[in-house]
């Protein structure tokens, strides 16, 4: 089941095949370049810092350069992949703020309700309940508890329109370990049931319902950092498992957490994401988060009848932390905010402040608007022509794209899609 409405226009088979070939060759080149970049910079960027403020490490003091060079560098920097993209300004309206702020929470839209789950309130406190936003009267309400054993962040989540499937994730605050426990919520009765646990736990795996099966792939492995490429599925119907065990499926070409995973017109898409993530500091009794090398990417993959991964045109810039930041409208995928590659000089995490559209009729990407601020892991819905987002972590300000405040604000704008 998809989030929001979708139409049934098909991709032209022969032109998309050509595009795919072109893209595979481009991707091959990009991967090599990426790998070279990653191996040359890995030694200098595995520093630790607070997850909250992503301050640069003491290593950054070694980056002192003469003023002239600095200026030159800055010019080059602005033209690079992590810079903000131009796009039309949108008129945003601020709505009722959520009962609690959330980072790395999860959200599922069913009709006029946005079910908002879990998430960090602060780095040392995680939520274990659900809040509901009603798009018809634009109010929050209906709070209820999650099962005690359910993960609090980095969840895989999807709905069939009534049942919400909740797979694995991180259990507890800071950078604690994951759980493989998996649940299903009946949104009508608000009853929770167990599902067979994932074979091994994952952080923020790509999760979707496709052809009667719950698919889970990628994510980070048990250490929170190493990308997993494994892919499993479980037959489910009306909130019940039809099998006792997960089935192994074709691995995804590139692993890692925090991607959009969407089924449209019987095809499964996986967009963006990253390799690497914060890890618990070795020996820390509170599993204190420590920053590690991350590579954020633009990759778009698709599975169809062939059950072989196809490569589609890449996103306009690297984008991660978008697992619940998408909707599907009129055969286009719309993605809100996210994170891109870190700043090469300050090494700070860089947030995205664009709304981007992937038109599946033309397989073209475009920037359809700017957000009121840059934001990551935001939770998105679409109702009655309005695009909504809530929660996540926003930037320090217009001139500083690094993450700061965890928010509960709700914003909306009239969605205007690009025909191209
Ligand atoms: C949302 O609000 C409207 C207007 O108050 C109400 O009629 C509707 O039942 C609410 N939706 C749900 C699912 O409670
Ligand atoms: C989607 O398509 C319908 C029918 O053509 C149109 O009325 C609507 O405005 C479109 N929605 C958006 C957001 O463009």
Describe this structure in words.
By secondary structure, the chain is mostly beta strands. Helices cover 11% and strands 40% of the residues. Strands 1, 29, 30, 31 and 32 form a five-stranded antiparallel β-sheet that branches. Strands 12, 13, 14, 15 and 16 form a five-stranded antiparallel β-sheet that branches. The chain has two helices and 32 strands. Mean pLDDT is 86; it is low at 1-79. The protein starts with 12 loop residues before the first helix and ends in a 6-residue tail after the last strand. It comes from Crotalaria pallida (Smooth rattlebox). Pfam families: Kelch_KLHDC2_KLHL20_DRC7.
Helices and strands in order, then pairings?
Blueprint: H1 13-45, H2 67-78, E1 93-94, E2 106-110, E3 113-117, E4 120-122, E5 125-126, E6 129-134, E7 139-145, E8 156-159, E9 163-170, E10 178-186, E11 191-195, E12 206-210, E13 213-217, E14 231-237, E15 240-241, E16 247-248, E17 260-264, E18 267-271, E19 274-275, E20 279-280, E21 289-290, E22 295-296, E23 300-303, E24 310-312, E25 326-329, E26 332-340, E27 350-359, E28 364-370, E29 375-376, E30 379-383, E31 386-397, E32 400-414
The site of one 2-acetamido-2-deoxy-beta-D-glucopyranose (NAG) has 5 residues, from loops.
